[in-house]
Structure formats: C-alpha cells, structure tokens
Amino acid sequence: MLKLRWTNLSGLVTLFLSQLTNLNFLDLSFNNLTGSIPLEITKLKKLGALHLDRNKLTGTIPESFRAFTENDPDLYLSHNQLTGDIPKSLGYLKFTVIDFSRNQLTGDFSMFFLDK
C-alpha cells in the first residue's frame, strides 16, 4: 500500500511505480501531478485501487487499462483534465468503482452496463 495523497507532489507520475509489482493500493490523489497517465501503471497486476483523482493530469485514459484483468481495480480519475473517448475495452472488466467525473471525456459509456 502506498498513500501519498495531500503531499503536494508535482510533476509527472513517475515510471518507477511500475516496478512495485506487489503494490495493491496506490493513492496519489490531491496533489499537483501533471502530464499523462503512464501506460506502465498496468504492470501493477495486484492493484486493487488506483487513486489519481484531483490532480492536473492530461491526455486520455490509456487503452492499456484493459490489462487490469486480474483484480479489476477501483479507478478514481476524477477532477483532472483528461480528454478523449473512454476506452471501450474497459467495458470488459468488472470494476466495482469507476470515477471519471470532472474531466472532459467524451464518447459512449454504456459498455459499463453490459453483462459480463
């Protein structure tokens, strides 16, 4: 478990996090992180929750999130500056919690309501 929320972190989400392969909880919320969500974050196969909410992240939600097939982590990405379509491949996963609110995302999200 790694909780670094409200610690005034700034800059990019560091790639070294993908080396913490036994990490089951990552909370970097309420900081000043910028840039895009690194594709390598999906190497955290044991992740049960990912909190990147309330930062200044930009870009799209990575299509590589479809690789979260073992745990289907809770995804908290709200209150950022994410844009683009929500990846359709996320509809195949069995998330318990997904929070994409307060971004500029577009597209169809009905895939989250399909039988899996």
The gist of it:
With 116 residues, this protein is mainly β. The chain is 0% helix and 28% strand.
Low-confidence stretches at least 5 residues in length (pLDDT < 50)? none
Mean pLDDT, rounded to whole units? 92
Across the major sheet, the strand order is: 1-3-5-7-9
- CA-based shape: globular
Radius of gyration: 13 Å
H and E order: EEEEEEEEEE
Helix content: under 10%
How far the N terminus sits from the C terminus, by CA atoms, comes to: 29 Å
Number of DSSP strand runs? 10
Continuous helix count: 0
Largest sheet: 5 strands, parallel
> What fraction of the residues are assigned to beta strands by DSSP?
25-35%
Global structural class: mainly beta
